[in-house]
Design goal:
This protein has 506 residues and is of the alpha+beta class. It has 15 helices and 16 strands. The strands form 3 sheets. Strands 1, 2, 3, 4, 5, 6 and 7 form a 7-stranded antiparallel sheet that branches. A 5-stranded antiparallel sheet has the order 9-8-12-11-10, with helices on both faces.
């Protein structure tokens, strides 16, 4: 707004009446809040000269007055200021205020600090809608006694119209926000319903919290088991990202709210709250937080959290959004876990719990491809001697126990990077990645020694034949070539043992 130091603030009653009519027409037709604040200033400036002008909104529940629009020295300024509303005389009394000459007294009136020139006089009027103050509008001048009671009456008339227009604009904005939010949550729900990777599910949920609630950080905390309050961060995102894997043992009050009562928990001031452990506070810095439980199959498995770097009141609407996202996360996690369980079952031998033939084949194909590029690879094949006779003599139950005992033995001897599986019947295979023949022979000797000492196998005098082969890029082309070479080594070992046994018996 341009400043008019020589212009008086007097206008005829007729002119002011026309201004109010025109102001009402313009303001009630403006549905964008930002455009509306500028329009309030523009229409006021037609009849009231001012160096500085502000529009503020008031949240009665939080006693928070927030400046949403400011013009200082004739130029609109970006502003984000909050004050205790009860400190404002206008809000406290619900009445307009005229200050004729008091620079210091204008501070709480106009909410404008600094500037090239100091205001000497000013007027402010409450924005009243349905009988309650929803904000204020104020104007001030560097000249003393720049305004009269008539000017204040005019500003109050403009404020009355502006209050209705602001309420309409905010309601329209809220409807638009909810529409976009509903569309976004529906879109997220569709995406989650098709996702089968639990980690990917959690990543999408965290991103959804950031997008929908416009917070600075979001995370998923998951419990260790279904008892107690110990857990860790399994997914995190945003500017105030907590490291994945960070431990978080819930404070007993958070445990009570999230796990036992299954309700949301709000932390208004992270910096001083005892609910947040110190090792996490350093990442969160300050601000506010919100957490809601994630429930899968009637059990609280964790919590979905959101954090704001600046103090923020997470109210019922934000809590409801978080709970909707947490419910979607619950369903998606349950589906993903079910899919993962089915996938594991399809790749796991149900009797021994180790990899089945299908998984061995898939793993070997990957390892052989790497071996063709130069990585070393060996396999060891195992065959339980005379297993059919064991089954026929001792029964299938004992046969199953022998298979289970041997599978456990192989798992204990294997390195994490290797894979052991049941190839079929009484045949087992160990895939030794990044290992040559020498390493494979050492592994084979360890297994042989363990078989001889294993009480469950020794009880039934179980022996095992073994063969080993290393992938040869010159001679081998496929998984079948490698397994065949190991089989041949095993049959040679069997033949040598048979021959040695026959010689000894003569």
């Amino acid at each position: 707004m341009a400043s008019h130091p020589d212009r008086t603030s007097r206008s005829s009653v007729e002119e002011r009446y026309k201004v109010l009519l025109e102001t009402g027409r313009i303001l009630t037709a403006t549905l964008s809040a930002e455009e509306l604040y500028a329009a309030i200033h523009r229409e006021t400036a037609k009849v009231l000269s001012a160096s500085n002008f502000t529009v503020s909104l008031y949240d009665q529940g939080r006693d928070l007055e927030r400046v949403v629009y400011r013009v200082q020295g004739g130029e609109p300024r970006t502003v984000d200021l909050g004050f205790r509303g009860s400190d404002s005389r206008v809000i406290r009394t619900n009445e307009g205020v005229l200050v004729e000459d008091d620079a210091d007294g204008l501070a709480s009136l106009t909410r404008i600090e600094g500037g090239a020139k100091v205001c000497r006089s000013g007027i402010a009027a409450p924005l009243i809608h349905h009988g309650r103050v929803v904000g204020t509008v104020s104007a001030c001048s560097e000249r003393p006694k720049a305004y009269t009671e008539e000017d204040l009456a005019l500003l109050q008339g403009i404020a009355g119209i502006a209050a209705i227009a602001i309420d309409n604009a905010l309601q329209f904005s809220e409807l638009e926000r909810r529409r976009r939010e509903a569309e976004r949550i529906e879109e997220i729900g569709r995406a989650l319903s098709t996702e089968r990777d639990p980690n990917e599910v959690l990543g999408r949920v965290v991103q959804a919290v950031l997008d929908v609630l416009h917070v600075d950080g979001a995370a998923v905390w998951q419990r260790h088991g279904i008892e107690g309050r110990q857990g860790r961060i399994t997914e995190s995102g945003g500017e105030i990202k907590i490291p994945v894997g960070a431990p978080w043992d819930l404070h007993e009050d958070l445990e009570e709210a999230l796990i036992h009562e299954r309700r949301a928990a709000v932390v208004d001031d992270i910096e001083v709250s005892q609910l947040i452990p110190d090792h996490l506070r350093e990442f969160l810095q300050a601000g506010s937080g919100l957490a809601v439980p994630i429930i899968v199959d009637e059990e609280v498995v964790g919590a979905l959290t959101a954090g704001s770097r600046r103090p923020r009141h997470f109210g019922p609407e934000e809590t409801a959004v978080m709970q909707r996202l947490a419910r979607q996360a619950s369903v998606a996690l349950e589906n993903a876990r079910l899919h993962e369980s089915l996938r594991a079952l399809s790749l796991t031998d149900p009797l021994t719990g180790i990899a089945n033939r299908r998984r061995l084949q898939l793993h070997l194909e990957q390892e052989v491809a790497a071996a063709r590029r130069g990585r070393r690879l060996s396999v060891v094949v195992f065959d339980i001697d005379n297993f059919k006779t064991v089954n026929d003599t001792l029964g299938h139950l004992v046969g199953d126990q022998i298979l289970q005992a041997f599978g456990e033995l192989l798992m204990e001897e294997n390195r994490t990077m290797n894979l052991v599986g049941r190839y079929g019947g009484d045949e087992f295979v160990s895939v030794l990645s990044d290992s040559g023949m020498d390493g494979a022979r050492l592994y084979l000797d360890r297994v042989q020694s363990t078989v001889e000492q294993d009480p469950a196998l020794a009880e039934h005098q179980v022996s095992v034949s073994m063969g080993v082969a290393e992938f040869d890029r010159e001679e081998m082309r496929s998984v079948a070539d490698l397994l065949q070479a190991a089989d041949m080594d095993m049959y040679r070992a069997k033949a040598e043992r048979r021959s040695a046994s026959q010689t000894a018996s003569r």
